[in-house]
Write a structure and sequence with these properties.
The protein is of the alpha/beta class. The protein is built from 14 helices and 12 strands. The strands form 2 sheets. The chain has a 10-stranded mixed beta sheet, sandwiched between helices. The protein binds 3-isopropylmalic acid and magnesium ion.
């Protein structure tokens, strides 16, 4: 059979894709340094509730932020802006991963606290719009997905630096069905993309007195893209002679995370997008599941902090959203505070979260009226902070 026409069509699509990616490279080259929040007259915090239980839990996190930043709000140094409309209904109506007006509002902020958003899957009543998470990471160039996992009693203190804009996700929805029988997806790497995430991981390690940074790839097989990631890692590691730099392949790394003898040795891990996606779920599971983890998405101009559980639409239809657990988005709020320079307030919030969810647990959230509401739990956290 002669496939010349199909191959020509696929080549054209591939050409377009390369043009887009090279444009991204130029944009990265032109990018300035990280925003200096201390130098801003006003830090604008966008609060974007998202879908399902999102608005209910995010409102509780906002109350806590407003409590901790009361002086800054009064002086005008910090301003909150609630952004509605990042809902699946609006996204479907506009046929956009992020409606244009919402994106504009997001871009007026410096940092964003985001609730869960619904990603339609097969069988859902929604058309297949792109994930709002992935779209936001791309639109705001949030290249570092930072996911800490801590279990002090087991000596586990991991911080994952997941590359957030490239790899298998860069053109994830632009693969090509060349013929009925042949499909091709693409994974993308750039020098600029590798450098900025790897340097961010080493800088974090240096600033936080960590002694080891580990790269995770599959460079023995995925030689071009993972190979570049690993080469860049080895090159950048030379700038940090006091930090041990080692590398592992993703398959054995998933095993080592459950190896009781070895796992507490890992400190900072830096890895391409898809491996980071997978392994951070595994890691969060040791700590009590993805619902207990916060996640930071950091770029040079914007940063977004999110809960990493779903939007639980059934809780809303059953009238139980007020009983939804706000702890993951509150943890994300603590990361936000640290990121914009309010480390003291962030530490207080981390401490209060530990007391309220691990050591004291005076109130529990069950997701229904057998437990307290999210608002009551937020009150408990604020009282705990006041008594620290
Ligand atoms: C995550 C999630 C997202 C991802 C989904 C919801 C698109 O799994 O934040 O890890 O794949 O990145
Ligand atoms: Mg994931």
């Amino acid at each position: 059979m002669d496939y010349a026409a199909q191959i020509a069509e696929a080549k054209e699509k591939f050409g377009k894709l390369l043009e887009e990616q090279l444009k991204r490279v130029e944009e990265m080259k032109a990018q300035g340094d990280f925003l200096d929040y201390a130098a801003l007259p006003t830090i604008k915090i966008g609060v974007c509730g998202g879908d399902g239980i999102g608005p209910a839990i995010t409102a509780q996190a906002q109350r806590i932020l407003e409590y901790l930043l009361a002086d800054e709000v009064k002086s005008g140094k910090v301003e909150f802006k609630v952004i509605d409309g990042l809902t699946i209904e609006r996204r479907v109506e506009e046929n956009a991963a992020i409606p244009a007006d919402v994106l504009e509002e997001l871009k007026e902020c410096h940092v964003i606290l985001k609730g869960p958003t619904t990603t339609p899957r097969k069988g859902d009543p929604w058309p297949n719009v792109e994930s709002a998470n992935v779209a936001m990471r791309k639109a705001l160039d949030l290249f570092a997905n930072v996911r800490p996992v801590r279990i002090p009693e087991q000596g586990i203190d991991w911080t994952f630096y997941r590359e957030n804009t490239e790899g298998a996700y860069a053109v994830g929805s632009k693969g090509v069905h060349v013929t009925e029988d042949l499909g091709v997806d693409f994974t993308v790497v750039t020098s600029q993309g590798c450098e900025r995430i790897i340097r961010a991981a080493f800088e974090y390690a240096k600033a936080n007195k960590k002694t080891r940074v580990t790269a995770v790839t599959k460079a023995n097989i995925i030689k071009t893209t993972d190979g570049k990631f690993l080469d860049t890692f080895r090159e950048i590691a030379k700038d940090y002679p006091d930090i041990t730099a080692d590398d592992w392949y993703i398959d054995i790394m998933t095993a080592k995370l459950i190896d009781e003898k070895r796992r507490r040795d890992f400190q900072v891990l830096v890895l391409p997008n898809l491996y980071g996606d997978i392994i951070t779920d595994e890691a969060a599971e040791f700590q009590g599941g993805v619902g207990t983890a916060g996640s930071a998405n950091i770029g040079k101009r914007y940063a977004m902090f999110e809960a990493i559980h779903g939007s639980a639409p059934r809780m809303v239809t059953e009238g139980r959203d007020k009983y939804a657990d706000p702890c993951s988005v509150i943890r994300a709020a603590a990361m936000l505070l640290g990121h914009i320079g309010y480390t003291e307030q962030a530490d207080k919030l981390y401490k209060a979260l530990d007391i309220c969810t691990v050591t004291e647990k005076k109130y529990v959230i069950t997701g229904r009226d057998t437990g307290v509401t999210g608002a009551e739990f937020a009150d408990y956290i604020m009282e705990t902070i006041a008594n620290l």
